[in-house]
Amino acid sequence: MPECRTRKDAESSASICITRGSAFRHDYYALVVDRDLIFTLADDFAEDIRLRHTIPPGPAIEFPLSRADGGKVVEIRGGCVPVSKDNTEVARLCNIYWGKKQIIKDELFEFN
Questions:
Q1: For range 80-87, the mean pLDDT
Q2: How would you label 47-58 residue by residue, b for 16+ Cβ within 10 Å and e otherwise?
Q3: What is the DSSP letter of 11?
Q4: What is the mean pLDDT of residues 27-42?
Q5: Is the CB of residue 79 less than 8 Å from the CB of residue 47?
Q6: pTM summary value
Q7: What are the φ/ψ torsions at residue 64 (nearest 5 degrees)?
Q8: HSE-CB for 74 with a 13 A CA cutoff
Q9: Residue 87: how many CA atoms within 13 Å on its side-chain side?
Q10: How many CB atoms lie within 10 A of CB 31?
Q11: In 3D, which of 2, 58, 57, 9 has the Cα closest to residue 33?
Q12: Helix (H), strand (E) at residue 68
């Protein structure tokens, strides 16, 4: 079962979820915004995320956060970086921005 952390404000909600793999298997991180899955990435690729979208002119179906900055290009960036102690990964710290807005802030997933 995924373990999720959710951040809500007046405009939107965003969740970062981890699905933990068994021993010697990858963990998977998923970003869900306003109940829509944005991505699911294996831990190796969740550290430095950069997704870029150009908003087309005219009417288009867009996420509200994409239009919030008023520009023609929006970028999702950030990730879930390893936290180590004594040369062993003990947690992942997640921070993600959608344009200028930080939608996931300092969410820590600890490992036992």
A1: 96
A2: eebeeeeebeee
A3: S
A4: 97
A5: yes
A6: 0.92
A7: -55, -40
A8: 18
A9: 0
A10: 25
A11: 9
A12: helix 64-68
